[in-house]
Amino acid sequence: MTELEKMLAGGLYDFSDAELAEQFREGRRRVERFNRTPADDAAAYAAALGALIPGIPASAKVVQPFYCDLGWRIELGEEVFVNMGCTFLDCGGVRIGARTKLGPNCQLYTPQHPVDYLDRRPVETSFRITIGEDCWLGGGVVVCPGVTIGDRSVVAAGSVVVRDIPADSLAAGNPATVKRRLR
Description:
Largest sheet: 7 strands, mixed
Order of helices and strands: HEHHEEEEEEEEEEEEEEEEEE
């Protein structure tokens, strides 16, 4: 198995591998192109965003600046809104359901490094982040590797989500905990 195949399969992979390094360089080039695109040039914006996140629906909006590792590991549903300054470390995959809103400076981290320092030289694994439909993440929310946030949930600004949040929940804090049910 190549290191890229290991990454896609959710196994430990060497992130210094030449093939992966080129994937990350190409991702950075596409991010730079997108972030340099004039916000008032709709055609250039759509082209740069489509090159960064293939298959993105025309109704989804990502406000610049935006940062990610690869781009092609991100899936956004219809009418998703990602506000400025968001960062997606998307090696493990990020899926955001329709009509979900992310406030400014949200950070979604899929990589997970081994705790033992010898084991993390230079390997990691990545776990998919899934955010359901009709969710709202306030500004500065951090979502950790492997977390699922259920449909219609709200995560308060500044929260750090380290465990799954069920559907129809209001979560807040560090670590984020469910404060109440919404339905």
